[in-house]
Every structure is written in C-alpha cells, then in structure tokens.
Write a structure and sequence with these properties.
By secondary structure, the chain is α+β, with helices and mostly antiparallel strands. About 20% of the residues lie in helices and about 35% in strands. The protein has a six-stranded antiparallel beta sheet.
C-alpha cells in the first residue's frame, strides 16, 4: 500500500497536502481507491462551497456502489479537479497525483493537527484488515 510520508491523512482514507499555510489539496488514499475498485463517476463540491471537517464533500461511484468522501478540513473550495470528473479512472491510476479532488482554503489551521501522519495512518489502516 502506497502511503506518502509528506501527506496527512484521515481515518476515513482521505489525504491532505499543504500547498501553502492557507491552502491544501485533498483526495482519497491508495487504500480507498483499491477498496472502491473501478471508479466510474466522481461528483465534487463546487468552487466557493464552505466545507466542514468530517462532512461529505464528494461522492465517488464505483461499479460496486456510491461512497461519500469526507472533507478532511473546514474551509472553502478554491479549485476542483475537472480531469477526474471527465475521466474518473485517473483516481484509480494516480490517487496522489492527477487523481486529486479539491483544493481548499483552510478556515481553521488548528484542524491540521487532528489529521494523521503517514505512520499513524499506516497503523490505523492495517488494523482494518
């Protein structure tokens, strides 16, 4: 399982990458895309939407079912990844690269400290098996 060290994680298998002190990019982890299998549709929150940590910000449909994706942090959506809406399989191919979901302007930087490090996430996801 691929768990990049430079990212932060949630227990619900989302990742966060800081791009500045005020903005992050988020997506789903390698583990999540493996569990979903073949992703056929992604619906993302629109630009300008205010998100709350732990509340759904996207829906991913696979050939198996539809799943809510939870915002890892509170803030405003500043950018959406159009590519995965047009070609959802990119999430399966590159969950940490071209398969990102949203960029979010952070409203509460303290929430970053509640996210998991790569080591903490590795332990949490291994306990699910």
């Amino acid at each position: 399982m691929n768990i990049p060290d430079e990212l932060l994680y949630t227990k619900t298998h989302e990742w966060v990458k800081k791009i500045s002190s005020k903005e992050v990019t988020m997506g789903i982890t390698d583990y999540a895309q493996q569990q979903l299998k073949d992703i056929v549709f992604v619906e993302l929150s629109p630009i300008g939407k205010e998100l709350k940590a732990g509340v759904p910000c996207a829906v991913v449909e696979s050939v198996k079912a539809a799943y809510d994706i939870y915002s890892p942090i509170s803030g405003k959506v500043t950018k959406v990844n159009q590519k995965i809406q047009e070609k959802p399989q990119v999430v399966n191919e590159e969950p940490y690269g071209e398969g990102w979901f949203l960029q979010i302007e952070i409203s509460n930087p303290n929430e970053l400290s509640s996210l998991l490090s790569s080591d903490q996430y590795r332990v949490a996801s291994e306990s699910e098996h």
